[in-house]
Amino acid sequence: MIKYLNGSDIMKTPNYIDAKKRNFEKVNIIRDFKINDELKNIGSNKKYLIKTYGCQMNERDSENISAILENMGYKKAIDYNDADLIILNTCAIRENAHNKVFGMLGRLKHMKEERPLMIGLCGCMAQEEVVVNEIMKKYKYVDLVFGTHNIHELPEILNNAIKNNSRQIEVWSKEGDIVEDIPIKRESKYKAWVNIMYGCDKFCTYCIVPYTRGKQRSRLKEDIIKEVEDLVKDGYKEVTLLGQNVNAYGKDFKDAKYNMANLLEDVSKTKIERIKFVTSHPWDFTDDMIKVIKENENILPYIHLPVQSGSNRILKLMGRKYTKESYLDLVKKLKENIPNICLTTDIIVGFPNETDEDFKETLDIVNECKYDLAYTFIYSPRVGTPASNMKDDVPLKVKEERLQILNDLVNKYSKESNEKLLNKTLSVLIDGKSDKEGILSGYSRENKLVNVKADLNYIGKIVNVKITDAKTWSLDGVLDEWWNNKRNKYICKNNKR
Asked: How many domains does the chain have?
């Protein structure tokens, strides 16, 4: 829908009906992304800041947005007060995420009243019909809004806003093509996000993501492998393969013989030292995937496997299309085949119609799986989803009590899992500084957060750390110099060949 407001203001807004549609139109691969010469200097002497909310996909999108802006002459600002352009890259998964963004927009309004400032909104909230309508009516100081499907159009959208001194809202309800070659400014020099697909076709009843990210579109394997190979050449040690449901990779291809198991196998051959992937839907996790993970050491023993509920009745209401029994069978296979597996999950409490017995079944599955970590949430309805039309009949007080009980149980198993690693030596990729002076932190192969006393030269290196203390959410350790010296000698020896 196109509207023209206040003369030159251009609005293209989303709607839920179009966002829900799935079609069989061919997804084109667009290459050789370029920024027109006349747009390369419009950010000269100006600074930008991007505030990112939500998942790894948003973080990866922000890396693209940063690179686009810097190719237009912008420099990265130190903080909000230093920025000429502030873009909020938003998340729509829960009500709390909404509230944070609208709260930030209120803060930015006051900043804009005091000095020249452009404000942009993008990400999943920008794809929600109700949000864009509210922005149009109540937040007229927001200068540009663009969606998840047209990040590549940011140069033109921004230029129009500046040149015409007008508000630009350009959001596509339907997903676009896959645009390769968009520049990227990676936040890390040794670990990287790599998109393997976009969108989701699962339509879980509570989830807004199929509406905000569009239909499932898989990147070509050749493009993914080349990106990883280039990262290896640049010295990167770890990649995380990203998608709303990575396990369904390739199912949208006409020739669906090439799947996630095949892709994992091929990525493992690129000599990248560490491979992760998120997020997995239990429905699509195959035996072939388990086999590939088991046989390739550089695919880390870390599986994030959202269960959402332990009740078959609630799972059916959620549209999850698996049962508690099939989920537990999968977990059993994973634990039998992948040594030292770290298993994490997502759980929602207080879904419409959830009874005390349903909640007890969720506790039962936590007791059975003994998750290393769980991300737990109180259900919040998302406008446009089927669940939003269900009667939300669980009182807030009950939801909060259930969440506390669940968190106490999850924390118990998290602590127990970490305590099993005491006095063991773990391979850790050092990320950066900890909050404590002189302490660095990073993640082990098992995706455990490890803190260790070491100098800054260790940042970006994979080192062996002997664990000396276990907390609920992290481990403390010391550098295992014997193992590290042995590893360094091995690397040097092989580099000389």
From this structure: 3
